[in-house]
Amino acid sequence: MELTGYLDFWFTHMPVAERVGKFAALGIRRLDLWLWRAAPMADLYAECQRHGCVINSTFDGDMGSLADPADNEQTLRTWAESLEMADRYGVEHLFMFSNQVEIAADGQEWFRRLSSNYTQAEQYANVLRQTERIMRLVEQTRVEVWVEGLNRFHIQGDVLVHNHALAADWVRRIDHPQFRLAFDCYHQQRDSGNLIWGLEAYHGLYSSVHVGDVPTRQEPGTGEINFANIALKLRELRFDGLIGMEFYPSSTEEAALERVRGVFLKRDE
Question: Strand pairing partners for 172?
């Protein structure tokens, strides 16, 4: 297992491009980023080149809602732009969500309202159709697309794919080697729980496991999730993918990293 670090959550007192060097000093070479259009991508890429890092994943804050037929033109256009960006800056993974997430000035996250009262069946049919069209663009690249369920407790409003059961069904229906699940413990616990059952049921579908604790979205050991058992299950399953540290450190970044290494990497070092 390999750890990845989230630029939006760690070293937040510094300009984002300067955080690359801080992660590199801790031995973290794969870096994840929210909202690529709002980020200084050229500066980040230059810093990654300087420190031997890569931009592991990001997503587009303007991608539109796959669940809304009125956004079909937008989602195709923005995905083409995201793929061009990924090629330019060596981004390996792009996240896809069923609904547009908007972030208010106070940091509160919302799901954008749909343009009409579509049934859930109509929304899901549109999600699948648009995904198939987008994947025809993706398969011309080396990018791997990750999907996840976003919980409706943390993010306000309504979202179609809100748990990992729905996200896993999405992955299975598309059935494409570049279309994978990201298993986010924070989102899954807040929506449905059943983390160990989910790791078993969806094994083979996910390339990454995210390890923010609940309720504070801080490092393992600060909340209610038993990450020791999560790590044990991943070892039993012979999971050899990425562990995404998408959380806010409760004290220092160094202490948070040691906690994660102690739980997930103690048998891999």
Answer: none
Q: What stretches in the chain show pLDDT beneath 50? A: 268-269
Residue-number span of the structural domain to which 204 is assigned: 2-265
* Contact of 244 with 6, CB cutoff 8 Å: yes
Contact 5, 57 (CB under 8 A): no
- pLDDT tens digits along 256-266: 999 999 999 97
State the alpha helices, DSSP H only, in 55-118. 72-89
The number of domains in the chain is 1
**CATH number for the domain harbouring residue 103:** 3.20.20.150
Q: SS3 sequence, 7-57?
A: CCCCCCCCCHHHHHHHHHHCCCCEEECCCHHHCCHHHHHHHHHHHCCEEEE
Cβ–Cβ contacts within 10 Å for residue 15, how many? 9
Specify the residue for token string 């220092």. 252
Distance separating alpha carbons of residues 266 and 177, to the nearest angstrom: 30
Cβ pair 32, 7 in contact under 8 A: yes
Question: For the whole prediction, is pTM greater than 0.90?
Answer: yes
pLDDT tens, position by position, 230-244: 999 999 999 999 999
